[in-house]
Amino acid sequence: MRVLLANAHGGDPAYGGAERYVRDLALGLGRRSHEPVVLSAFPPRAEAGVETHVLHAADWRDDRLRRLRNHAGDVASLPWPRLERLLRELRPDLVHTSNLPGIGTGIWELARRLGIPVVHTLHDYHLLCPRTTLTRRDGTACCASPVFCGLRARRLARWAPAVRVVVAGSEHLLRVHRTLFSAAETRVVRLPLAPLDGSAPEPPAAARTLGYLGALTVEKGVRLLLEAAPALAAGGIELRLAGDGPLRAEVEAAHVGYAGRVDGAVKLEFLRDCDVGVVPSLWEEPSGPPYVVREWLAARRPVLVTRRGGLGEAAALAGVVAFEANVPGLLAAAAQLRDDDTWARTREAVPPVSDGRDVERWLDEHEHAYRDAGAGEASEPAA
Fold this sequence. Notes:
Layout: E1 2-7, H1 17-31, E2 35-40, E3 52-54, H2 64-76, H3 81-90, E4 94-97, H4 106-113, E5 118-122, H5 148-157, E6 163-168, H6 171-177, E7 185-188, E8 209-213, H7 222-234, E9 238-242, H8 248-253, E10 257-258, H9 264-273, E11 276-279, H10 291-298, E12 303-305, H11 311-314, E13 320-322, H12 327-337, H13 340-349, H14 357-373
Parallel strand pairs: 1-2, 1-4, 2-3, 4-5, 5-6, 6-7, 8-9, 8-11, 9-10, 11-12, 12-13
């Protein structure tokens, strides 16, 4: 089966979770003798190891005009002739879309006209919110404007009837978007728990270090961590952070361990050097759970999470401990793990990840979605 995986940043390893999803899916489908092809709106910054076609010469992060064109393209959401030519050239059996800035939802309508089934994966709130987070710049919740955001959402979703199956990593994310895809079949496909590169780390003997790995932003709860850091230290727990973002200067100025942006072997070392992970999100986290929770568990580290959005669904996993999204809630959860008996039970609950069975489960569920969408069935282009 020839599958076109369309995503704003393709499978770029230098970007975020949606890109990792596309890259892992393309490589997994390739191992199963499918023919994955990636469509990226913007030039990738790192090699993904997958055949990739790029729509635009500039990246919106570097080009203000390109950024404005993205927003205008979202509102227009037209079936662009250039995309039609590309679909005719590549002749995929199925189009699987992810984040669509720079591409537009018009690709759904083009696929319908050409008789190509469409599967869409939700990763965030792009279809509902220009900022993709449903938050303001200060991290507080933002109610969608019925004038601008409502009009924009209706424009983006007017081609949604062409989508046959909608996939999301959490029940929460499907629920939020259900009215946009009322005609589609929906299903939750949770991200896989995959072994880390290198030898499996030993579980820590005590909860002495609390680690945060991710974007340094308000909505991710970084300021909550910095506010809690003195009390954590007084209770015998050192806070360590890794990542980059707008709050980097505040993190560097705080009395906490800061490892900067980490990747590859350095990232694995950071995971091993921490005893407990923390995901203190204040926004409605889309996935349940996101990749970072999976990484902490794969490193055999318990992880503390808030119940915001899809993270509430992660609380059912062994080794995951939920806390209220505030400083007292975090301190109470951390204090519990300082108790020897509680720590032993929590640590032992984290299952070792020694093989790729969950990755195969994840790929199986995507193949099922493709079949249910009608991939492989003979079909005539729509009028």
